[in-house]
Amino acid sequence: MISAVALLRTVMTHVLGVLGRAFWPSLVIALLASFLYLYCTDSTDAGKGFWAAARGWVWRARTSSFFRKVLALCFYTSVVLYSTLIGRAFCANPLSYPLSGWRLWVVAADGGISPVMSGLENVAMLMPFTFLLAWMYGERLIYARGAASMLVWSTGVSLAFSFCVEGLQFVLHLGTWQLADIVYNTLGGAVGGLLWWALAGRARVVDAARAHEND
Fold this sequence. Notes:
Elements: H1 4-41, H2 50-63, H3 65-86, E1 105-107, E2 113-115, H4 117-125, H5 127-141, H6 147-172, H7 179-214
Antiparallel strand pairs: 1-2
């Protein structure tokens, strides 16, 4: 039977391999998306040439925490899109296995357990996505409403995002459409949102305690 340490090592090796393949394309996409974001939200340096736009980008990255969150979200979203769409091979029949892919592990004849990386990857894929999205907007939108609202919000966001990705895979014939992908992506996204909620609550408790000590 595989140990927890060995399982974690296997999962991390696989995740780092995916991140390594997607890093440079995702970085380029994230930079372009962040420039577009600046153009749409702050046109101060628009029309003044590339170097003026680059200086404006650097200044915003240094001074605006929200812009850094936007950049992080753009990068990770690009990683997800590269792994699920851009970097996928053409599939003649995307509906060849619509109800497969549910297993998270397999049991060998000798009783040993091996992880199924595709299933675990689908669970983990949207955890950082909803975490980063909640990090950007959760404080003003849903934090004060409690864990239940956080769960509903993160589940809805991850379900919609996963459904759109699977729909594009079907339309563009990139990979295969599988119901398990949507379910596991949604599950992971819900966990990511709740994780942010728990950490944000812990940070608030610590800040309140420090403020009380200083009074």
